[in-house]
Amino acid sequence: MLSHIAVNKLEVKIVSGTYKLVGDDFVAAELNPNDVVSLEINTKNRVRAAQNGQVIGNFSNVYLKGLSKNDILSITVISPKVKVREYHGDLKTSNINNRLRLINLVSMNNYLAGVVECEGGPGHTETYYMVQAIMSRTYALKYKEKHRGDGFQLCDQVHCQAYYHRQMKTPSINHAVILTDGMVMVDKKNRLIDAFFYANCGGQTCDASYVWNVSIPYLTPFRDTFCINTSQARWTTKIPKQKWVDFLVSNYDYPISDSAYREKIFHFVQHERKAFFHGSELGIPLRDIRHEFSLKSTFFSCYEHEEFVVLEGRGYGHGVGLCQEGAMAMARQGYHFTQILSFYFPQVIIRFLEKSDYFQHLEKQPEDF
Hints:
Blueprint: E1 9-16, E2 19-23, E3 26-31, E4 36-41, E5 47-51, E6 54-59, E7 61-66, E8 72-79, E9 85-88, E10 90-95, E11 100-106, H1 108-120, H2 126-142, H3 172-179, E12 183-186, E13 197-198, H4 208-212, E14 234-240, H5 241-252, H6 259-264, H7 286-293, E15 300-305, E16 308-314, E17 322-323, H8 324-332, H9 337-344, E18 349-352, E19 367-368
Parallel strand pairs: 13-17
Antiparallel strand pairs: 1-4, 1-8, 2-3, 2-7, 4-5, 5-6, 7-10, 8-9, 10-11, 11-19, 12-18, 14-16, 15-16
């Protein structure tokens, strides 16, 4: 939780349920709704805990353990200031490198409901939320050891999946998570797939090798007409010519002295997605250009206009896997959630965990995120 912020002080308010505050190895307090616990790093690099303004003690670790199935707490970061967030489940806090490390212990379904709302946004069809829930469950289980070396399983940023708060705005998300409980996607060898997704493909998905140098059999590019009329399907930006030239020449030795290449440096056309700027012989990956100039995607063409290079682009995101705006449109048009997933992940099988011998070792218990 809040893994991208150096938190030094926060307040935790009990929204519902009853919690025990465990300081190191003993129960230091019992917390009821509206009780507030302040946590901060003291001068001896321990976690100072106070309940409703009264100091409880200084500990190496503080664990707020819920005692029911509907425990909810809110977190207000005092230093630095961050918007209030609510979470289901428990909270573990400790001092790591002079900052508070926050770990939310939460059930898979409550975690997924938060992820689906953060990744998909409120106000969509239940069918779309079922699609997102299956993808997010697949990702969470495939990469549940991603941060094991850091002392937890998954972070709350897009490095794993966005999990900024519990589900709060769209109750149908909870129903979608329950309806798909246990459903994941596997390949023909019964392995959890890479359930990648992004906002908009601009009309064509992208080969995984264009982004990560590795091809994935079930993630090959294809035309997608479902997203081409949505809000993020097209974009335009301008870059100063000299800035464009300096980047290409200094980083990739673009042959600016060659008259043929000099003529092409401001002109580039993509009718279909490509991996490189003017072919692989120059060794300029489009993903590098996207990163350097903070572009919405690599699916762009360009031309010169006065002192600028004008980029006319399509889509938003890396383009590998499922196009969220395309899937949302398919759901509105009445496609079944299995049809949507099969469209974006051909050759993939949707399976219940309990029906696969491969998953027998997985236990349904709270995960650390």
